[in-house]
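User: What would this chain look like folded?
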Amino acid sequence: MTDHRVALVTGGSRGVGRGVATALGAAGWTVYLTGRGSTDPDDPLGRVAADITAAGGRAHAVTCDHVDDDQVAEVFARIRTDESRLDLLVNNVWAAPRGFGGFSDTFWQRPISDWDTLIEVGLRSHYVASVHAAQTMVPQGSGLLVNISSFGSRGHLHSVLYGMSKTALDKMSFDMGHELTGTGVTAISLWLGLIRTELLLSLGMDEFAGFSLERAEDPTFVGRVIDALAADPELGTHNGATLVSAELGAGYGLTNDNGSRPDSHREAFGGGGLFPPEG
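Assistant: Here's the prediction, encoded as structure tokens.
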């Protein structure tokens, strides 16, 4: 892989996206990150790029509403113009449904408009970005598409629409991997465990939904896992697979910022996996 590695992280202003972008910047990637906010350094999106740059990395914040296909196309056109390549797409953008408060209501109690965020943003936007990324990666003969998913594919988590969107991402990655075979481009779905976001830590809890915060994943840990996966000479063997971030991290010898090793939640959700199908 070239020393000039270019990544795009969608939904990069906070949480997982912020951690992934920060870790990739520290690892030497040129990072583009999107969000709906301003790119001013005083606003969350711009602040992430400014922090990466201040730490010696290279980052570019780009305002983009991922439900607007024209805006998405403009992001990729800019990357092609400025960098002439794209090596990594991390599809992370997500939007909470209206009145989100922990998904405590059943599906028949929720407005049908929940579809507009959990499916339109949480699924369709990943497909649209992947189409644009592949149009650059396939001609260059290399690249990695990462779809941020969760154990909600394996068991009930949060809501019906949340589970639908995550399971669809896993199947999407599998089928994209099939069609990318022989191109040098790899598509995977990445199941994250409980993430120690600033919001979650601010609540002062020791556990969330039965999982220990002490053994949860730092957002930057996820970024280091993706960096290691992109550099793995065996990357192509994972094409189309659904992988677990905590398990990949353990295999690569990675830890959280404090040196702890996050737990995999695979067994808590019934064990096994989804893709590729066991047989």
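Residues 120-140 form the longest helix (21 residues). If you want, I can go into more detail on any region.
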